[in-house]
Specification:
The protein is 30% helix and 25% strand. The chain has a 6-stranded mixed sheet, with no helix packed on it. It has a 4-stranded mixed sheet with strand order 9-6-11-14, with no helix packed on it. A 3-stranded antiparallel sheet has the order 8-7-10, with no helix packed on it. The chain has 3 domains: 95 residues, SH3 type barrels; 82 residues, no CATH class; 77 residues, no CATH class. The longest helix has 32 residues. It is elongated and about 120 Å long. A hairpin with a 5-residue loop joins strand 12 and strand 13. By secondary structure, the chain is of the alpha+beta class. The protein has 4 helices and 15 strands.
Length: 305
């Protein structure tokens, strides 16, 4: 009975002694904050963090949540969205909030004019993705169409052209001159090649047989020998005519086939003229972020529009 208070005091002292050790064994993890700036990439996706600098023609440096400095090449940048207002951390591939994203860029278009048959069709499809071919316009067209699509010319009874891109600048115009290739003429040429080749072979055999036959003789009704020269000459003449006609048909079939392999398309304009202004990165707001100490790169420039 007299030892109970002493035991209680001993237990209390033991608990007090172990409290600092317990407190030190459970450190609190602090997540690194994510910067509010966003660099959008042309191929999709973005890099979020604290923008260090932007060097036109070279790229951008941005400090990510891990503290590392990531370099984004200039050719990979679609637009840069700097901001001085912190925003919640985004994880799991979630898109940045619309409050910090700039206005969507309208697709580049040109007004297309087509010089060709009234029933010709201009079909196109986006260069990215697996979208199928869509008829954009028919006849003279004379309407705006996407500049960066792939195109081909087709139509009823017309051979499809090779795939091509439109030349021109955003908001400008482009012109196509279409030389349609006929499917029917192409098929007729192929048939002509086959028939002409057969006629040429038959004519050759007739000539050969006529030469051989003309050197022989037959026994007449009176028992006298009769030469087959006249018959052989006739076979040679007939074979030569047949072979000549067949050869002419082969040549004509070849010309018809080659001329109608694919629909010809000629266009005006210069695609290179729009390459530089069309694909330069865009800045959505004033860009003036102080460089992070110890970061590599040139001082940040201020860009406004």
């Amino acid at each position: 009975m007299h030892g109970s208070p002493l035991k209680g005091v001993a237990v209390a002292l033991a608990l007090l002694a172990s409290t600092p050790a317990l407190a030190q064994s459970a450190p609190v993890a602090v997540a690194a904050p994510v910067g509010p700036d966003v660099v959008y990439l042309k191929g999709g996706g973005f890099v979020r963090g604290t923008l260090v600098d932007v060097i036109p023609g070279q790229g951008a440096h941005i400090q990510v949540a891990t503290g590392e400095i990531t370099t984004v090449p200039w050719k990979s940048i679609d637009r840069v969205v700097p901001t001085a207002v912190p925003s919640p951390e985004i994880s799991g591939g979630e898109a940045p909030p619309q409050a910090h994203a700039g206005p969507a860029r309208a697709p580049a278009k040109v007004r297309l004019h087509v010089d060709g048959p009234a029933d010709v069709e201009i079909a196109g499809r986006p260069t990215e993705g697996n979208a199928g071919w869509t008829t954009v316009c028919t006849g003279a067209c004379d309407q705006p169409v996407p500049l960066d699509w792939q195109y081909e010319v087709r139509g009823d009874g017309i051979k499809t052209s090779s795939m091509f891109f439109l030349n021109g600048v955003d908001g400008g115009s482009a012109a196509l001159k279409v030389d349609p290739a006929s499917k029917g003429t192409f098929v007729l040429g192929v048939v002509g090649i086959g028939a002409g080749a057969l006629g040429t072979v038959v004519g050759g055999y007739l000539v050969l047989f006529g030469v051989i036959w003309g050197r022989t003789s037959s026994v007449g009704s009176n028992g006298a020998a009769v030469s087959n020269q006249s018959t052989g000459d006739a076979l040679v003449t007939g074979g030569a005519v047949t072979g000549g006609v067949g050869l002419a048909v082969v040549v004509g079939g070849l010309l018809m086939t080659v001329a109608n392999i694919s629909t010809g398309v000629k266009q005006t304009g210069s695609r290179d003229a729009r390459a530089a202004p069309t694909f330069l990165p865009r800045f959505e707001s004033a860009l003036a972020v102080p460089p992070v100490p110890g970061a590599l790169g040139a001082p940040l420039v201020t860009v406004r529009f």
